[in-house]
User: Fold these one by one.
Assistant:
Number 1:
Amino acid sequence: MMQELFEKNLTHLGTPTWYSRNEEIFVEGELATGIFKIKSGCMRTATVLSDGRRHILSFYLPGEFYGLEAGRVYSVTGESVTRCKIHMFRKNALFEAADDKIAMRLLMIAASELSRAQKHSLLLLRGAKERVVGFLLDMAERQNNWQQVDLPMTRGDIANYLGLTTETVSRMFGRLEDSAAIAIERRRVTLCDLPALKEMYK
Amino acid sequence: MMQELFEKNLTHLGTPTWYSRNEEIFVEGELATGIFKIKSGCMRTATVLSDGRRHILSFYLPGEFYGLEAGRVYSVTGESVTRCKIHMFRKNALFEAADDKIAMRLLMIAASELSRAQKHSLLLLRGAKERVVGFLLDMAERQNNWQQVDLPMTRGDIANYLGLTTETVSRMFGRLEDSAAIAIERRRVTLCDLPALKEMYK
DNA sequence: CGAGCGTTTGAGGTTGCTCAACCCGAGTGG
DNA sequence: CCACTCGGGTTGAGCAACCTCAAACGCTCG
């Protein structure tokens, strides 16, 4: 896999760091010097509108990358959702060490970011229940586990990401549980009726 | 500018084609062999959900590129919004002709696609009026004209892209006109009170 | 055991959707 | 030259979905 190769070649160029909960990892507007790989825990990216509203644009789980920007500065702020370990690669180092395949690897990372952002847009074009179901299915896929999903983030974060309110997310969870499609315990969700869920988010 | 360079070097590898209105340019699921640059007119990308609903993910104006995919196949369908001229580059040809900077150029295109998709997500996280205003401001910026905006697409396409209904888009246009922020004539919109508009979409 | 955050639940209000009618301009054919 | 049609756009009334505000509950961690 390309990511394995990428990491193998470049681990020595990066630095692993531990963050506790809700720490800033990089800040919107800063010179975008780093590329990040999540080793454990969960990171989110968010942007702040000038009136103070905050929007979460993405969550990052172990194994996933962040860091390719159109501009020279970060367009979002990166924050730890939970205590987490994150490996940072400096772009300069990458480019200095560049063999002729490295840009291609970066291209693949950018393309997967793009695909992620498009999925998010599609999610936001739907109704509340569908958004919640789509979110659960996406998390299940990324955790590679269709039985149970861990939700490292709060309901508030989920709601913000989905363009809903905490209350609505909670109610949708409730309704899904009532219909026996899922079972909820704290921040672990069991996908009891996967076909039904996939039917809701087709 | 990077795009000039890109095109200059590679024009001979591409083929320009004319499309009439509402033609398919490439289809979701097809092997993604091409990269497209809009020369005139307007293109849109859309995806069809399994229940038949269609969602427009992006519009492309003259000078803009489409074509970098995470996977080997197109994840969306490309269609002409108006009669338009589009230049297609074959990826294979690009890679064969690759000097050591070409992957970097592709990376920049991918990054701008990403930024576009993120803007779309942010748009969808807002209320109806804000979405419409945000859309107008985005089009103005991309057309490099803060006085007047051309809207090559129908209200239906705008609504679909914004996750609203035609009626709502029409009403929001009406309300903006009533408040003297814009003036509408067919598919040309004059931005009468730009500060007010920017205030609405801050 | 208390404090505080995160979550759930309920009642009422607002936004944007649905359904329906109507308008307008561009083609088309008599 | 007018009548008809058709796609696109606007407008209005009623309704459903989702939000707001408010209260209560339950972990978790001092």
Number 2:
Amino acid sequence: MYWLFKTEPDEFSIDDLEADGTACWDGIRNYQARNFLRDKVTVGDSVFIYHSSCARPGIAGQAEVIKAAYPDPAQFDAESRYYDAKATKNNPRWFCVDVCWRATFAEVLPLAQLKQLPALADMLLLKQGRLSVQPVTAEQWRLIEGIID
DNA sequence: GCCAACGTTGGC
DNA sequence: GCCAACGTTGGC
């Protein structure tokens, strides 16, 4: 399957992913996004990495899922900003996946440009602003890849 | 920094 | 279960 993961580049950018090679995609604290992560994201899936809350919001690169959902360790860490007192090891509430870097685009594909494409009008990114893990259809994926090339 | 959209919380 | 209050996301 195809996905789009959002990240704030001030916190963790596509360049950080490229430098690190792999990353634990943790800190997802939204149930809809959690359900996608936990139930649908699988090893080998392709992911667009989207930069949000920044000067140039848009799709910045690509990653690949290398480990399916497991309990997000941060929920058990009282020191973490992602700590959740109601989560237990036997009954974890939040999940993360591992990804590896695949590509950094020469330029971020701007949100403003995506908005101008009628074929992407139904893309969740454009219809539902606040979802940090979301599915991308094969058609949408191909269309966006075509713009990058 | 503003604000719209949406999610979460908690009283009833 | 409703809904008001509040919090967060995220573009601009």
